[in-house]
């Protein structure tokens, strides 16, 4: 596994062949928190006429995403995580000139034009990405999601990003102070909102269970503990996490 964004880019370039037609990639490594150099990757892929698909689950709402600069053809991402929206709701972006090039294996009432008129049945698809909204949407979730977006926009997405980075840096330093090795140290020139670490000599699986029993939301990823603090967290809460880490019985 590449330890730095630059190493990842070089590994990706060396993996591309004349047969490569599409590359799908997360915005941020979900197990280490390492951000990928999306603009450089997009430029490289575009120069070879390779389509770039972004899984935005780990990045949208935290890292800025510019579809033009990153040469993105498609993006899929959920409402939850950094956007604080409801579970089960997702978004899909398709570059306009790519919509008609995709196969469409199934269509529903919401896929065709004049979908409010059920009969007679029609086959003509809507011109936009909403053709993939094959049936009635979950409007209650959209009201919920709109409220979270308005809140984040009122705070300012840049301010949200800086606050998350501040909390992640604070937690990282606290974990290092109690003997944890942090993935962020492999890419110190980049910031991340996902804090991943481990400590020699202890069972990380048991540690994660211990933290959860004590009310700490975390996850086990590649044998390490992962945290994703957000703007609703306080530093004293992160101090408690560090205290629990230091007091974990070996």
TrEMBL record:
This is Aminotransferase, class V. Residues 9-240 form the Aminotransferase class V domain. GO terms for molecular function: transaminase activity. The keyword Phosphoprotein does not apply. It holds the Pfam family Aminotran_5. It comes from the Bacteria. Keywords: Aminotransferase, Pyridoxal phosphate, Transferase. InterPro entries: Aminotrans_V_dom (IPR000192), PyrdxlP-dep_Trfase (IPR015424), PyrdxlP-dep_Trfase_major (IPR015421), PyrdxlP-dep_Trfase_small (IPR015422). PANTHER family: BLR3095 PROTEIN, CYSTEINE DESULFURASE.
């Amino acid at each position: 596994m590449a330890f730095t964004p630059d190493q990842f880019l070089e590994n990706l370039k060396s993996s591309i062949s004349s047969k490569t037609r599409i590359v799908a990639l997360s915005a941020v490594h979900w197990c280490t928190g390492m951000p990928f150099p999306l603009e450089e990757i997009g430029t490289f892929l575009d120069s070879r006429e390779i389509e770039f698909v972004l899984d935005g689950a780990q990045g949208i709402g935290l890292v800025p995403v510019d579809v033009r600069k990153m040469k993105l053809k498609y993006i899929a991402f959920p409402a939850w995580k950094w956007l604080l929206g409801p579970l089960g709701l997702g978004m899909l972006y398709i570059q306009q000139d790519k919509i008609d090039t995709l196969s469409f294996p199934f269509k529903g009432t919401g896929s065709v034009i004049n979908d409010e008129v059920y009969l007679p049945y029609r086959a003509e698809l809507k011109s936009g990405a909403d053709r993939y909204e094959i049936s009635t949407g979950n409007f209650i979730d959209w009201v919920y999601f709109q409220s979270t977006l308005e809140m984040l926009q009122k705070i300012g997405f840049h301010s949200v990003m800086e606050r998350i980075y501040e909390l992640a840096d604070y937690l990282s330093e606290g974990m290092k102070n109690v003997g944890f090795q942090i993935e962020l140290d492999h890419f110190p020139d980049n910031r991340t909102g996902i804090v991943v670490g481990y400590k020699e000599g202890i069972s990380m699986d048991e540690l994660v269970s211990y933290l959860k029993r004590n009310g700490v939301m975390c996850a086990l990823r590649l044998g390490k503990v992962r945290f994703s603090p957000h703007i609703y967290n306080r530093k004293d809460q992160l101090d408690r996490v560090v205290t629990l880490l230091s007091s974990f019985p070996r």
